[in-house]
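Late entry, written up from scratch paper. The run itself happened at the end of the previous shift, but nothing got recorded in the book at the time, so transcribing now.
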Amino acid sequence: MNDHRSTLARRGFLIATATATVTALALTAGCASDTGKAADTENAGEANTPQRGGTLRAAFAGGGAGETLDPHAANLFVDAARAKALYDKLADFGADLAPVPRLAERWEPNETLDTWKITLRKASFHDGRPVTAEDVLYSYRRIADPKGTFRAKASLEPIDLAAARALDASTVEFRLKRPYAEFPNVLAAFGAYVIPKDTTSFDRPIGSGPFTHRSFTPGKSLVVKRNDAYWEGAPHLDQVEFVVAGEESARTGALLGGQVQYAHELSPATARTHGGKGRIEIVRLPGSSMQGFVMKTDRPPFNDKRVRQAFFLIADRKELVDGALSGAGEVGNDLFGKGYRYYASDLPQRTQDLDRARALLKEAGAENLKVTLDTAPAATGFIEAAGIFKEQAAKAGVTVEVRVGNKDTYWKDILDNGTFASYRSGSMPIESHISQRLLTGSTTNATKWQRQDFDDLYQQAQSTRDEKERAAIYERMQRRLHDEGGFLIWGFADWIVATAPTVHGVSPTAPANTLDWARFDKLWLA
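Output as recorded:
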């Protein structure tokens, strides 16, 4: 997810004054630090108890004047945060990337796992209409329209939407094209929001989310107000204003200056500079971004698994995390999804072993190997990690030439071209990572890992009802990938947000784009 950058001045951010008085009062109440121990104790008690009222301003990078409040068109972090405020999905992902019911109260598969019945909870849209099965079907069919380009379209591919039907007002039946044990992941897919049937305009959006629309200026600001009738309980805040501040320095400056109380997507360097000094609170969201390299397994030199195994052993993962991520993360073990549901945590942590790496390269006839590592400033730490790995590889007798490409076309360029490239991924279920990137027919298979027996294991997992048995299959698949796959996953980066000391309720455990990320309905000012 790549946000376009701009400055506060270019977005006209500093002219926003509608809620300055409320914000200033909230900041004054929270920032007083010299009123004595008794006041500190009293304030601490208030901070731990949710307080009702106030306006919170949150700064995100934005997408310019072409922004929309159509939740199906969401692509950027600010889009996702706005959509979460105004709309709901049938499910969303918990911190472990397991699906959590939202508008869906429960889901039930048939014996063969190719038909799923979804029962809706009692919830209403902002205009008072109940959320019904027809609204769900309309939303999903709109997303899947062949003429559209909505991001969730690929996620809905397993559903035979022509055969889907409303059994009654609160029950949807989805018939699938094949057995799919992890079908609830589809209900939680990025952008799979439920909108009222026949909605075509989003100028004044009507959703079922915790806030209702008040005003919107594309590229500048969205103001939403509390939905007192929200099915999960009314938010603590009166209002939230999402403001666009494209440059990280602008978001940081606005937070330090008291013009916003929440700043999204800060760098480790910024967190290190300002953290622990009392002016702002740094929140690190673990496991939000996988960091690594892809080795194309269908072409030399990485079509020999011994070369891939040697590269696994060349990597000094701690040095990469410390150098490329400024220490803001944890080491990886060449598997996606550390800490997520189904992760093979029992596999031994791989460490650097240059002697064994040299021996494997010699066995493969790849002594004095030369490879080109493609990278670009397309993500934080890419260039730095490439330089660090180049130095590590040299110690094993491997010459790495770093080739810096165009950040705007990077992901398309490396999908089919080259042999070795920098890579990152946001959070998603391990099953989705496998299905989207590691099957023969996967459309984003950057490692070109194509193994029919591996595909068969995936299909076996999707036809297995028992979760423990399914987990055992996923473990077998991950053991194979750990031994000979094409992903060299050296680390997992923290996602960093910062708040004013007056802001409370931010989850410290939710990876970006999961349920409790950007949960402004759960925040309060104290």
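The chain has 16 helices and 21 strands.
(Scratch paper discarded after transcription.)
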